[in-house]
């Protein structure tokens, strides 16, 4: 039977483009801990050297590098090897990550009261700030679009009541959980780091460039084939008598090409390519 009395716990890994944790981040974490709404249970720093080697630094080995080390950890070791390996897999060479295991201390009382009332937690989902902002902005746009256009009233608008209050719109809107899941899929995994996203974007850019090159090569081949076909189709042999001068024959071919171009049979590119071939 479990004897621990922890509330909900969240593991957070924050990656940085250097091998050191910025002082501003440390100060922000300390401010949050001082408020008492969360408790720091475990902490570790994961680094990947320029050569690609991974190093996991425990709080006892950080020394004066982190001011957070002064905080007593009541759940040291909760972040297991599997967790730290997952964080390290997303780090690019020369970067680091601060791994925090945080207990939502504010929820202890709610969890205890729920358990005492034989209740269960049906849903507990951590929604990234980006997702919340996206859904909130979409809801604001929809509310403005649904609100009827009218002239400003001649007197101040009365406070909301049962008659004039806009209804809460829920149906048809994307949910927070679904949006968060789709965001995680797009990013690769819920714990994907900026380095992984950049590598994926670079791969897509390379694929797009290769596709453009292939399309350009196909277009060039089509123009050359059209020029050859036009030259072969409309080139007439010189009559036996009287023999036409080469210059006159060339002028005749150019004139026919011009007629084909003017009538729309040949495009600008095909006309230019055929003309260049004849003059070459």
From TrEMBL:
InterPro entries assigned to the protein according to its UniProt record, in alphabetical order: DUF6325, SHOCT
SHOCT domain ranges (all copies): 253-279
Region described as Disordered: spans on this chain: 143-169
A Pfam family matched in the record: DUF6325
Protein name: SHOCT domain-containing protein
Species this chain originates from: Cellulosimicrobium cellulans F16
